[in-house]
């Protein structure tokens, strides 16, 4: 929808139960499962959302779409989300809130150095925590006033989205460019493993990443990761 059409939609004021009502949020996130979690958090809070799964698509969105809030994952398939954060933070017409997001330890510093207003550590499932991060980052002129209840509700993303992520990675690993994508694959799987509470897969992905970084043999690590991914795909098919 163009900016002209969106300007025709009446602006709604936030309420105590839906404190983000009236806000437009762009989520830049490659994982379907993580995106589904953010989608639920936004909708329960009253915000309208759009999603881009890489930097290229995000930039296309931003040429025609003016969000209030942009949430950028740092690990994207076509580059670092910190680059987009830097562009948004230093644009002449700045969006209200730019948030960095990652589940990798030590990455918050890169998001904040690039100009992010705040940082979301994945996984995030608590509605009240999510709302507080965005509300605290909003300029005072657009921040809703008054007392409101703090929700302790946790959301549960659709497991079908997690299966979509596994199938996507399985496809990447079977393509000729699979080895060139191993660092991205390891980062991606570690992220969705933490979001879904899959400690076995998280350990396998982190071991692969560590061995590649250290220049150690990693063939057995790739086989272990591929086996775990296929196992989870097969388990879902059986269910």
From TrEMBL:
Keyword annotations from UniProtKB, A to Z: Phosphoprotein
Note whether Nucleotide-binding occurs among the keywords. no
Name of the protein in question: Response regulator receiver domain-containing protein
Transmembrane ranges, per UniProt, are: none
Q: Report the InterPro entries cross-referenced here.
A: Bact_response_regulator, CheY-like_superfamily, Sig_transdc_resp-reg_receiver
Give all 4-aspartylphosphate modified positions.
73
The segment(s) forming the Response regulatory domain are 24-137
Q: Which GO terms describe its biological process?
A: phosphorelay signal transduction system
Query: Which SUPFAM superfamilies does the entry mention?
Result: CheY-like
Q: Which domain of life is it from?
A: Bacteria
What is one Pfam family matched by this protein?
A: Response_reg
Carries keyword Transmembrane helix?
Answer: no
């Amino acid at each position: 929808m163009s900016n002209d059409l969106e300007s025709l939609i009446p602006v709604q004021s936030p309420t105590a139960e839906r404190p983000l009502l009236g806000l437009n949020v762009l989520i830049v996130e490659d994982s379907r499962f993580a995106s589904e979690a953010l989608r639920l958090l936004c909708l329960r809070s009253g915000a309208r959302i759009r999603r881009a799964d890489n930097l290229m698509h995000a930039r296309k969105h931003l040429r025609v779409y003016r969000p209030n809030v942009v949430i950028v994952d740092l690990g994207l398939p076509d580059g670092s989300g910190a680059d987009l954060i830097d562009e948004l933070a230093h644009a002449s017409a700045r969006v209200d809130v730019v948030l960095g997001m990652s589940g990798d330890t030590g990455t918050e510093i890169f998001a904040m150095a690039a100009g992010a207003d705040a940082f979301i550590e994945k996984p995030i499932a608590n509605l009240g925590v999510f709302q507080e991060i965005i509300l605290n980052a909003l300029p005072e002129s657009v921040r809703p006033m008054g007392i409101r209840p703090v929700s302790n509700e946790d959301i549960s993303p659709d497991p079908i989205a997690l299966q979509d992520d596994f199938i996507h990675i399985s496809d990447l690993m079977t393509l000729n460019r699979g080895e060139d994508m191993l660092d991205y694959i390891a980062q991606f799987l570690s992220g969705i493993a933490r979001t879904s509470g899959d400690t076995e897969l998280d350990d396998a992905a982190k071991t692969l990443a560590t061995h590649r970084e250290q220049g150690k043999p990693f063939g057995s690590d790739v086989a272990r990761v591929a086996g775990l991914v296929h196992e989870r795909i097969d388990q879902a098919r059986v269910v």
